[in-house]
Design goal:
By secondary structure, the chain is an alpha+beta fold. It is built from 14 helices and 22 strands. 31% of the residues lie in helices and 22% in strands. Pfam families: FAD_binding_3.
């Protein structure tokens, strides 16, 4: 690297994507400067510019691996801070639109925690590197350069102050869904094509402390939405600090109320009463936080005919997913890994374009899953599924129903969700044969709680004791909660 500013990279945004981008570039550039408009907390508390900071975050296996590769030791730090590991489906009972899943496996392991913990952990590790600088309370106003090459950013303290030019060999926009990159590129004469899928899903989260009898040993609970109709779902999952987060969600026409007094009532209207029964025994540990910005929004920077050298867009600034699918942080990590690989071989003509295309490829599978599912809802705004997609959806519905009992199908379905199995496997000969055959047994009508878990619920004062006799083994036990 040579020339003025070529020894520096600037990253706009100190969220997960921005911090990981800084790690990705630290070995290629002499200096990495992160420009962040928020004043950041000292610890793992939510920051003002992250409205999802109060909600649960899930790290999928590829995301965990990417974070550890970019920031070695981060996983041990998250473990040490109490981020739980959840085996899927061993440590979580899952209800699909077709019934409860038997608990084979675990096929995958998820990390569950808050966004603040992830960002705080990464921030501490990054700032321990003398090559990294973090400018907080500073807003990026625009790009330096022209349509052929970006050479830095204009920045100014929020609330007023002197505008400064920060010259750089690379600028990475990781500023999130509110990114100004489309406007900046429009100033260079480029129009960015976009795809928006708005299913109208909304959710509300409240932290709880579970009774001691339940907090250790009770599984997480996930009730999926049925995107074929107006529906409700929920997630009850442990995070650091001994808390459990209850996130209740619904499609357009069944959205949860933001008020505290409506949170438990909405849980009672879920397709099954398990989450409501647990919350009835729990103590609230904070207010209800509502979130309604769940649009899946993709900016197709990779499709532009011309791309300026020295500029890459990453994370939510490029592709935002409906958060209920838990993919965003993991895809951001995969995008940062793609950025690192593109620049690791050196900086030259076409590197930024190559990096941008690699970032887009890193999001392709997650986008196909999130947007594809959301497109099925009858009230979704945006592209609708065509004839071929409707045929695929019918096959996937049959596989979803079969996966409730069949470990072979279940393992593949779980792997696709966890981004460890390519979706094409679901359309392979073995899966198509299973889909044609259809489910051989009806789905479980009750949550597959083990006798031990039913005992925990009973000791905590729940309904498990009355129905303990309904349980029949360690993987497909029943309980009282079907409706």
């Amino acid at each position: 690297m040579s020339g003025r500013g070529r020894s520096r990279a600037v990253v706009i945004g100190a969220g997960v994507a921005g911090l990981l981008a800084a790690f990705a570039l630290a070995d290629t550039f002499d200096q990495v400067t992160v420009v962040e408009r928020d004043r950041l907390p000292d610890g793992p508390d939510p920051r003002a510019g992250a409205p999802q900071g109060h909600h649960a975050h899930v790290l999928l296996p590829p995301g965990v691996a990417a974070i550890e590769e970019l920031a070695p030791g981060a996983l041990a730090a998250l473990d040490g801070a109490g981020a739980p590991r959840v085996g899927l489906p061993r440590d979580i009972v899952v209800r699909s639109p077709f019934g409860w899943l038997t608990r084979h496996g675990p096929w995958e392991t998820l990390l569950t925690c808050t966004r603040g913990l992830i960002e705080g952990t990464l921030r501490r590790r990054l700032l321990a590197d003398a090559r990294a600088t973090l400018l907080t309370g500073t807003e990026a106003l625009g790009l330096l350069g022209d349509a052929g090459s970006v050479t830095g950013v204009l920045a100014r303290p929020r609330g007023g102050g002197e505008t400064r030019r920060i010259e750089a060999g690379l600028v990475v926009d990781a500023s999130g869904h509110g990114s100004a990159a489309p406007r900046w590129l429009a100033g260079f004469g480029a129009v960015v094509p976009e795809t928006v899928v708005d299913s109208g899903v909304a959710y509300a989260t409240r932290p709880y402390h579970l009774p001691e009898a339940l907090a250790e040993g009770f599984p997480a609970v996930y009730m999926r939405l049925d995107m074929r109709s107006v529906s409700r779902g929920g997630l009850l999952v442990p995070v650091e600090g001994g808390r459990w987060l209850a996130t209740l969600f619904g499609t357009r026409g069944a959205t949860p109320p933001p008020a505290a007094d409506g949170h438990r009532a909405f849980a009672r209207d879920l397709p099954d009463g398990l989450i409501a029964d647990v919350l009835a025994l729990a103590e609230p540990a904070g207010p209800v936080r509502a979130f309604r910005r769940t649009v899946s929004h993709r900016r197709h920077y990779d499709r532009l005919r011309a791309w300026p050298e020295g500029f890459v867009v990453l994370g939510d600034a490029a592709c935002t997913f409906n958060p209920v699918y838990g993919q965003g942080v993991s895809v951001a990590a995969l995008g940062a890994l793609a950025l690192r690989d593109a620049y690791r071989t050196g900086v030259g003509r076409g590197t930024a374009r190559r990096a941008q295309r690699a970032v887009a490829r890193a999001a392709d599978v997650a986008w196909a899953i999130a947007a594809g599912v959301d497109q099925r809802h009858p009230l979704t705004r945006g592209p609708r599924p065509g004839p071929s997609s409707r045929f695929v959806n019918r096959c996937l519905d049959r596989l979803d129903a079969i996966s409730a009992h069949d470990p072979f199908v279940q393992r593949s379905m779980v792997g696709v969700y966890a981004l460890t199995v390519p979706p094409t496997r679901l359309l392979g000969p073995a899966m198509l044969y299973a889909a044609a055959r259809g489910p051989r047994v009806p789905p479980l009508g009750r949550p597959p709680l083990t006798p031990h878990e039913l005992g925990l619920l009973a000791r905590a004062g729940g309904t498990g004791r009355r129905h303990a006799a309904d349980s029949f083994d360690g993987t497909t036990a029943g309980s009282t909660h079907d409706r």
